[in-house]
Amino acid sequence: MSRTVGGALLVDGASVHRLAKRGRHNGRPWTAATAWAALALLSGERVDWLDSWAISRLRHRLRASSASELCWTTRRRATVHRMRCWGKDTGLLHSGVSALRDPAMSELFDLTAVERAADGYVRARDFADLVTTLGLVEDRDGDVAVRVVTDDAGYAVDHVLTAAVAVDMAESLDTRESAAGLRILEDLLDAFRSDKTQPHRRVSPQVI
């Protein structure tokens, strides 16, 4: 987040740290549709919004990717809004630290659920209603991360993807959370390279 004061550009520290953590890699970040296809494939799910040639090419690129590269190439998966919420329920599909409230996710990442923040996804078409209904307010210091997914991204934002949770966790400013996210991403990539990835049972939507 940034703002201009007296002709000077001010950038908040959290934004600088998040950008630094992403690093830079060769190539452009993928489109939202490709990013979500990659995360779905790594989560063991089928992709029906890309043609067979595009999926084949994506599979090849995933096998050659590292966890940190994946964080870079999928960075356009959503637009992140830092907000604060007056409501008791943000109506977001759990991700990042909020996903740890699911015992299975907590066990997978070997982290304990925290109550300090809320993190999750919403479809672009539902964002305005969510803001109005729940009193969400833009706040660069807010503890609610609202990740808005474009309506043409392919992903319906109707169930949790393990790879998406891992990518969001990997971008955390908390060292333990970031390390856990990168570890799970590497595990998913290793399984994908070994052709061990099988379609998983969909995780039921979890609303914060």
How many domains? The number is 1
Query: Could you say which structural class the secondary elements and strand pairing correspond to?
Result: alpha+beta
Compute the gyration radius: what is it? 17 Å
Strand content: 15-25%
Task: Categorize the overall geometry.
Answer: globular
Question: What is the tally of beta strands?
Answer: 7
| Low-confidence spans | 12-22, 197-202
Question: In which range does the helix fraction lie?
Answer: 40-55%
Mean residue pLDDT:
85
Write the layout of secondary structure elements.
Blueprint (H helix, E strand, L loop, with lengths): L1 E4 L2 E4 L1 H10 L9 H11 L9 H12 L3 H7 L5 E7 L7 E2 L8 H7 L8 E6 H11 L1 E3 L5 E6 L12 H9 L4 H19 L15
Describe the structure.
This protein is α+β, with helices and mostly antiparallel strands. The chain has one domain. Helix content is 41%, strand content 15%. It contains eight helices and seven strands, in the order ββααααββαβαββαα. The chain has helices at 13-22, 32-42, 52-63, 67-73, 103-109, 124-134, 162-170, 175-193; strands at residues 2-5, 8-11, 79-85, 93-94, 118-123, 136-138, 144-149. β1 (2-5) and β2 form a beta hairpin. The longest helix has 19 residues, at 175-193. It starts with a strand and ends in a 15-residue tail after the last helix.
